TrEMBL record:
Superkingdom to which the source organism belongs: Bacteria
Pfam family, one: Cyt_bd_oxida_I
TM annotation in the entry: 12-35, 56-75, 95-119, 131-152, 183-205, 226-246, 329-349, 415-437
Example of a GO cellular component annotation carried by this entry: cytochrome complex
Family: Belongs to the cytochrome ubiquinol oxidase subunit 1 family.
Keywords linked to the UniProt accession: Cell inner membrane, Cell membrane, Electron transport, Heme, Iron, Membrane, Metal-binding, Transmembrane, Transmembrane helix, Transport
Localization per record: Cell inner membrane; Cell membrane
Native source organism of the sequence: Brockia lithotrophica
GO molecular function: electron transfer activity; heme binding; metal ion binding; oxidoreductase activity, acting on diphenols and related substances as donors, oxygen as acceptor
One GO BP: aerobic electron transport chain
Protein's recorded name: Cytochrome d ubiquinol oxidase subunit I
Secretion signal span: none
Length: 462
């Protein structure tokens, strides 16, 4: 039996590593789509401003991409150092999507990123193709990572074999693993949420420059960027809410105990209400406070049927339940932030449609809301990831392998040493990322006053 402290420290280390990596990933996925659209507009219109937009936002993407690659590689090492028992058990399935991700998606993304970044002064067709290939590679990376994670949430297409007295998972049907419904709901929801990160980032940076009173071509530059990001923000917030609902329904079907933890539903049944506020206490197996019930809404959210049957936490042994308090509050905060993003995006769109940029500039409070909202989609991402991963506990592979069985036979000192080292290393990277992104974003683009007449734009003071 492994030392529980080793288990807890290994979980903490992987959680911190994934959280750090998640700072870079969603912006990478969200921003490259806007850059690719700018490249397409440049090729079709030959309007130099679209090229300048792609260059400026592309530089911000590049900073994030490079630092994200470093944190992603380091995270994968932990499967060998901290989770070797898991790797032995899951290697036949877990290795395939990760190998495809590295050989196909990451190769595609990195190669065309180099072509786009270093060859962007050449043909518009090459710029456009490279940008879209980078976007495709980025999304394919997410697909294969989530394919591996989807199996951990809902194992399908496998059989258990015994080799030298050790039970291992053996892949039996690749396509069943690939078309696992958990994969596709999670993938679409995650990518759309990443588009929220990218769009709110562009909205916030643009709002900063509007607040600084930017004028001339730079004002037009940020208005075009703002308009594109606003369209993405409205669509992404709406679709993220829709896909989130269907992911919840799928979770209730494949991981009912996790779904019960979403809303701290202790007693299952039909026609379950939804409480706007509740405080769960796992030791008493109840919520000590429940208020504002909405009849039948709980059943509808889990089953698409107001009279549908929902399982409660008491339907499962205590040792198979996830940490209810963490899952419940992470879920509620994530949903609350999602509603906030939708409200801000729709209100901003309505305001812009009615009065254009002048109406926004007469509303500095709204511009400040957009500026200060930049970190919130990141927090929402972390909360969503917490709901997914804490909700799977105590299983590392749902129903097949407990987390306590997956750790490496290492000492507490070994884990502490690597934990401190990684925390320091990632801390430096995050500080560097925030510094470089904020410096470049505040400085803004150096625009040519007229195409081909030289650089005359002056950076806005921070």
């Amino acid at each position: 039996m492994p030392n529980q402290l080793v288990v807890d420290l290994s979980r903490l280390q992987f959680g911190l590593t994934a959280a750090f990596h998640f700072i870079f990933v969603p912006l990478t996925i969200g921003l490259i789509i806007l850059v690719a659209v700018m490249e397409s507009l440049y090729r079709r219109t030959k309007d130099e401003m679209y090229r300048e937009m792609a260059d400026f936002w592309g530089k911000l993407y590049a900073i994030n991409f490079v630092l994200g690659v470093v944190t992603g590689i380091t995270m994968e090492f932990q499967f060998g150092t901290n989770w070797s028992e898991y790797s032995k058990f899951m290697g036949d399935i877990f290795g395939i999507p990760l190998a495809i991700e590295a050989l196909l998606a990451f190769f595609l993304e990195s190669t065309f990123f180099g072509i786009w970044f270093f060859g962007r002064e050449r043909w518009p067709q090459l710029r456009e193709l490279s940008a879209w290939m980078v976007a495709l590679g980025t999304n394919l990376s997410a697909l294969w990572i989530i394919t591996a994670n989807g199996f951990m949430q809902h194992p399908v297409g496998y059989k258990i074999v015994e080799i030298d007295g050790r039970k291992l998972i053996h892949l039996e049907n690749f396509w069943e693993v690939f078309f696992n419904p958990n994969v596709w709901w999670m993938l679409v929801h995650t990518i759309l949420a990443s588009y929220i990160v990218g769009s709110f980032f562009v909205l916030g940076v643009s709002a900063y420059h509007f607040l600084k009173g930017v004028s001339g071509r730079k004002r037009e530059f940020f208005e075009r960027s703002f308009r594109m990001a606003l369209v993405m923000a409205v669509l992404a917030t709406l679709l993220t809410a829709v896909t989130g609902h269907f992911q919840g329904v799928n979770t209730a079907r494949t991981q009912p105990v996790k779904a019960a933890a979403f809303e701290a539903v202790w007693e299952g049944g039909k026609g379950v209400p939804f409480y706007l506020f509740s405080i769960p206490v796992p030791s008493q197996e109840k919520n000590i406070l429940e208020c504002c019930p909405i009849p039948y809404l709980g059943s509808f959210l889990y089953t698409n049927n107001p009279f549908g049957e929902v399982k409660g936490l008491k339907d499962f042994p205590a040792e198979d339940r996830p940490p209810v308090v963490v899952v419940t509050w992470a879920f509620r905060l994530m949903v609350g932030l999602g509603i906030y993003f939708l409200a801000v995006a729709v209100y901003t769109w309505w305001k812009y449609r009615r009065g254009g940029l002048e109406a926004l500039e007469r509303s500095p409070k709204l511009l400040k809301v957009l500026l200060y909202s930049i970190p919130l989609p990141y927090i929402s991402h972390w909360l969503g990831w917490s709901v997914t991963e804490f909700g799977r506990q105590p299983w590392v592979v749902y129903g097949l392998m407990r987390t306590s069985e997956a750790v490496s036979p290492v000492s507490v000192g070994d884990v502490v040493f690597s934990l401190v080292g990684l925390t320091f290393f990632y801390g430096v990277l995050i500080v560097a990322d925030i510094y470089l992104l904020s410096k470049l974003a505040k400085e803004g683009p150096h625009l040519e006053e007229a195409p081909g007449k030289g650089i005359s734009g002056r950076p806005v003071e921070a």
